[in-house]
């Protein structure tokens, strides 16, 4: 009799244990840990969104790790990351590889309009730059343009806009967007190429200090000059406007997809706007009073 009771109790507790294990493994967007890989050029907006998500869901812990855009994408394919931030368009071959490796449809979650900008020291006599000058300069042995490295989002995006392969372009390197700004005065004949989000935060002291060291050159395109104000980013008139988007290999509604949804809602888009970037999913509304 006792043996029968023991068997029944063991069976009962085993069912409870299995149930607990299933509960632990069930998807959850509001608790758990996750790492996001992002290029340094848009690390600021990624960190701001991560902080907002953790405030809303205190049981989550999100770590933002800086990694070159192409390398982050490779890590996503190899299941070393659950979510990455991208800016350039993937090639048809890359999209095919993503869908085969991840077993998901390619659905980029677009959340902000950023830009690649061309900067010179504040006291430089240069006031603008043309698309022709950029294209010619990227083919010159003078290596007039300074990027933050190979495999970076800035270089990838400029190459894509010029319809070139990054490996075929000629340029100088100073690692880090911030370092380019701080060291640009040493190279008065050079032009720095950085991500707008490096110093786009309007009320941030560090961003303000960096902005005061350089001036952003308007880009001349088809007879007109375009700067990086909200209107030109929203309408994508500025030739080097880029749309930031998330990619994930998470097939269920866990923390990665929860974070993506949050970033694309009004609350997340308000954070994007506070970062000085153009929200992708909401636009500034103007109301006329009569």
Automatic annotation (TrEMBL):
Cited SUPFAM superfamilies: Periplasmic binding protein-like II
Domain of life: Bacteria
Matches recorded under PROSITE patterns: PROKAR_LIPOPROTEIN
Keyword vocabulary terms for this entry: Signal
Coiled coil location: none
Domain annotation PBP: ranges: 32-263
PANTHER family with a match to the protein in the record: PERIPLASMIC PHOSPHATE BINDING COMPONENT OF PHOSPHATE ABC TRANSPORTER, PHOSPHATE-BINDING PROTEIN PSTS
UniProt protein name: Phosphate ABC transporter substrate-binding protein
Species whose genome carries this gene: Chryseobacterium cheonjiense
Lineage, opening ranks: Bacteria, Pseudomonadati, Bacteroidota, Flavobacteriia, Flavobacteriales
